[in-house]
Amino acid sequence: MPKKRENRGRRKGDKGHVGSIHCDQCGARIPEDKAICVTKPYSPVDPALAQELEKKGAIIMRYPVTKCYCVNCAVYLGVIKIRPEQERKQKAKLY
C-alpha cells in the first residue's frame, strides 16, 4: 500500500510505542507524537489594565500555555492548513 506521507503523520520514527494524550478541544485520545501542540503566552491581567500598568513601570508576567490538538481540531481552528498532495511529502514547517 502506498504511503501518503513519509513519516506517516507522526514524529516517533522507529520508537515503537508512545503514550497518548487528550486533545484540548474535543477530548479525543491521540498519540503524543501525532498531536499538534501550540504554545502561546497568557496573561491573567486584562489587556487594557496591563497596558496602563506597563506605562507606570509595572512588570506584567505572561505565562506560556501549551495546548495540544488532534489533527481534526487543528485544521478546524486554523492552526495548520491542508496542503496539496504534492506538497505533503515535502519537509516544511507546518505552523
From TrEMBL:
Gene3D superfamilies according to UniProt: Ribosomal protein S26e
Pfam families: Ribosomal_S26e
Keyword Ribosomal protein: yes
Keywords assigned: Ribonucleoprotein, Ribosomal protein
GO cellular component labels: cytosolic small ribosomal subunit
InterPro entries named among the record's database cross-references: Ribosomal_eS26, Ribosomal_eS26_sf
GO biological process: translation
Keyword Ribosomal protein applies: yes
One function term, GO molecular function aspect: mRNA binding
Protein name according to UniProt: 30S ribosomal protein S26E
